[in-house]
Write a structure and sequence with these properties.
Layout: H1 3-19, H2 25-28, E1 43-45, H3 47-60, E2 69-71, E3 88-94, E4 99-105, E5 109-115, E6 120-123, E7 126-129, E8 135-138, E9 144-147, E10 154-160, H4 162-167, E11 173-175, H5 189-194, E12 215-216, H6 218-227, E13 239-242, E14 257-263, E15 272-274, E16 278-284, E17 286-291, E18 294-299, E19 303-306, E20 312-316, E21 323-329, H7 331-336, E22 342-344, E23 356-357
Parallel strand pairs: 18-23
Antiparallel strand pairs: 1-19, 2-3, 3-10, 4-9, 4-11, 5-8, 5-10, 6-7, 6-9, 8-12, 13-14, 14-21, 15-22, 16-19, 16-21, 17-18, 17-20
Bound molecules: fe (ii) ion (2 copies).
């Protein structure tokens, strides 16, 4: 057989194979990459833009059937409803007097309060009141509505595992029959029951997968960070604290972990990478995060997305003031599937060479 005849026969075979919905592994070998090559890119949404857009949304769009939440789409993901491959972050505003109607869904949600005191989220009949820096949970399939009875607007960051739930084809959504779910528990009931560090009520036999504590207050978080001010910390994350499930001590949600980390004044942390993605929110101070050689200079209110396996290192730009980052991470998923992997960067003393600076 001549070479050209072989090629023609091969081509013809491939065409018939593809028409039968089959592909040869020899055609797909390049997809078995040596390491993760995410389609999501590192990106940053600046506070000024987020704030202006969300306020404009407050005037331009009524809070109708859906929440008034601006979803942060990763520019690398071709218009997919996703900030990373597994998580979506959004910024949501609720004006004085508004109620976002009750619904439930299989995606799990967290809220990190950015601005405004005294509005609430009601979760399965319990109202949880918000203050800036508070972390509030809405576990999978829990009924929830939001209300603002104050005279000032509230803004928060939402974090949900929607792209993951979509990929698993496990999306369920329902509206409640009324605008709000009737209250069946006292305000902050979960805090009264489960909000005692290292002291767990023994009579509660239920061990839900998601933390039964719905509110992690900024007061307590900030106090803990302050108490640890002189602790050793971590070379890559400095004083990083994970919010935990009060009964198990593990990640507070099956699909997402939440961290808060203080980067002390003048600290330049080392670079590392790991599987799993993250979204950071700058709570306080100013700093920079170098991701795959690109410098992201951040200040209070900015939101940054970090894809899986990207090299990253954080630094505080101030020599006087602490910088604080809050983050959501899909690490519990990677860990429970045995896919979590971490690697310290060893070249150049552990610091990347900066080749570009991010501009929105
Ligand atoms: Fe929701
Ligand atoms: Fe990291």
């Amino acid at each position: 057989m001549t070479r050209s005849a072989a090629t023609a026969a091969e081509t013809e075979f491939h065409e018939r194979m593809h028409a039968a919905h089959m592909y040869g592994l020899w055609e797909l070998a390049s997809q078995m990459t040596r390491h993760p090559e995410p389609q999501a890119i590192p990106y940053m949404w600046k506070a000024a833009v987020l704030e202006a857009m969300v306020r404009e949304a407050g005037e331009a769009v009524p809070v109708g059937e859906e929440r008034r939440a601006l979803q942060l789409f990763n520019p690398g993901l071709d218009g997919k409803w996703a900030t990373t491959n597994t998580m979506i972050a959004a910024v949501q505003i609720l004006l004085p007097g508004e109620v976002a109607r009750a619904h439930r869904h299989t995606p799990t949600a967290i809220r990190f309060i950015m601005e405004g005191t005294g509005a609430y989220t009601a979760v399965d009949g319990e109202r949880v009141y918000m203050a800036p820096g508070d972390l509030i949970l809405t576990p999978s399939w829990a009924w929830h509505d939001h209300g603002n009875e104050t005279d000032k607007l509230v803004v928060w960051m939402d974090g949900l595992d929607i792209p993951l739930v979509q990929a698993l084809n496990a999306m369920f959504f329902q509206f409640y029959s009324e605008r709000q779910v009737p209250l069946t528990k006292p305000t902050n009931a979960s805090v009264h029951l489960h909000g005692h560090a290292s002291l767990t009520p023994t009579w509660v036999k239920e061990r839900p997968q998601s933390s039964p504590l719905l509110l992690y207050s900024w007061d307590k978080t900030y106090q803990s960070l302050g108490t640890l001010r002189d602790a050793a910390g971590d070379e890559w994350d400095d004083l990083a604290l994970e919010y935990t499930h009060p009964q198990t001590g593990r990640a507070l949600l099956p699909t997402m972990a939440c961290w808060v980390q203080m980067i002390r004044p003048g600290k330049r942390l080392k670079a590392h990478r790991h599987t799993g993605s993250a979204v950071y929110y700058a709570v306080q101070g100013s700093g920079e995060t170098i991701i795959d050689g690109r410098r992201f200079v951040w200040e209070r209110g900015d939101i940054i997305t970090l894809p899986s396996w990207a090299l990253h290192e954080h630094a505080n730009r101030s020599t006087h003031d602490a910088a604080i980052l809050f983050s959501i991470q899909d690490r519990p998923v990677l860990e429970s599937l045995g896919l979590y992997r971490e690697e310290a960067y060893s070249d150049n003393g552990g610091y990347q060479t900066v080749t570009a600076t991010f501009k929105a």
